[in-house]
Amino acid sequence: MDENNAVKVSAALIWEGERFLVCQRPEGKKRGLLWEFVGGKAEPGETGEEALVRECREELGITVQPERVFMEVTHEYPDLTVRLTLYIARIREGTPTLLEHNAMKWIRIEEAEGLEFCPADVEILAAIRRYAGNVLRFGENGTRVLLPGSGEVRSVVWLHEDFETACRIREIMRVKDAALALVPGTDWDADLSPWPAPGVFGGSSGFSGGAGKHLETLARDWIPEAESALSEAGRPLVRVIAGYSLAGLFALWAAAGSDLFDASAAVSGSFWYDGFAEWFRGREISAKFVYLSVGDKEKNARNPRMAKVEEAGEAILTGLKEKGIPAVFEKNPGGHFRDVPERMARGIDCTLSALYGN
Questions:
Q1: Could you tell me the domains of the chain?
Q2: What is the DSSP letter of 133?
Q3: Which of 185, 207, 266, 343 is most exposed, with the fewest beta carbons within 10 Å of its own?
Q4: Phi/psi at 280 (nearest 5 deg)?
Q5: How many CB atoms lie within 10 A of CB 328?
Q6: In the beta sheet, which residues pair with residue 13?
Q7: What is the distance between the alpha carbons of residues 242 and 262, in angstroms, rounded to a whole number?
Q8: In angstroms, rounded to a whole number, what is the distance separating the alpha carbons of residues 163 and 15?
Q9: Beta-carbon neighbour count of residue 218 at 10 Å?
Q10: pTM for the full predicted model
């Protein structure tokens, strides 16, 4: 196999919930009617990302944003050798429309078994199976639980994240015996806000304060349903709630508003939320550990309310210490939107290690 003369190909792994997009090649082309990921050959002078954007526009009429390389594969066909780079990408504009392919589908990884893919994609599908497989589902739009690859479940971490981000978190985490449970159908400004407050951006309708009702549903429906399927012989699971941004605030609020969780990880949490730090310091907390973090540049936010995030986090930490609750407050490099899966994985690992006594 001559990799030096391989044709460089860019392709897109585009997620919609727990499904990803695949396309069927036209009948008249080589490898006709086989399934593949949208993309194509890079033209002279193009980067892989530029080629991907152009190909997605030409083949499906969409504009995509490549986010990171998922994997690279080299495969030798009878007529050429290809070096395929698969990017995780998000649709920025447009709706996928058949312009060149014979058909397209959004599939779960297990549904790939019923489709015949181009040989270069077989190794990719195996990697996606490791990345996005081993999922416990409850109803079409219900809770999704990402099971650990080891098979053993010692803890369950409740998240308000999209499926692909949760897969990335599971991939990065060092603790390998935790299941990640995804809370379905969340309206962030309503369900994750503890009480009504003005919005932070122009045109926002504000926060409506529905966290109490959301927590009731979590306690009544989603937690019992998922954890009854996870527990072995009634063995209790370590239960953690973790979240980013406003979901981080909810994770901290839930630890103070109930005894449901053994620990809370509030990652780049919205600690600036009006009156929250003062409210939190006056509450009794049953959690055994609390993890807090912010980006070290978040205090430079232009919005004066959001700029109080680090100061408020320090006040919350002080309150936890006063109550004798073990806690960590980390300051990560960068602003609010940097390294979200990496920060989440770090926070969850720290929390579970503290609970496990590692």
A1: 3-131 (3.90.79.10), 134-356 (3.40.50.1820)
A2: -
A3: 185
A4: -65, -40
A5: 16
A6: 88
A7: 11
A8: 9
A9: 21
A10: 0.92
